[in-house]
Description:
Elements: E1 4-5, H1 8-21, E2 28-32, H2 34-37, H3 42-50, E3 67-72, E4 75-84, E5 96-97, E6 100-107
Parallel strand pairs: 2-6
Antiparallel strand pairs: 1-5, 3-4, 4-6
Amino acid sequence: MNKQIITNAELATQNDIFRSTFKQSPSDRIVFTSSVTHSDNLEEIKNAVKNFKTFEEGDDPYGEHDFGTFDLKNTKYYWKIDYYDTKFEFGADPHCQPFNRVLTIMEASDY
């Protein structure tokens, strides 16, 4: 299998597209924790993740746009993109494609 090396900037662009569109595929999945799934604010939470643009160096030290936090109605939320091999069995280096991506959205208290 040929591996394609991508830069942090390219990875950030891919992550931004995935996160802002919520377009799932066999290689890109979105997961919500139970507290988010059952929240009365689910659509607002989704929109906050889709529209997130406040990447701070402490949360995004490599400029990959794979983590963010936000507050909504006095509740803190996290979203995180993790990278897996093509079978979703092991972690993967996101700079060497192919890989799979999982966006997890949770209340901070779930962590």
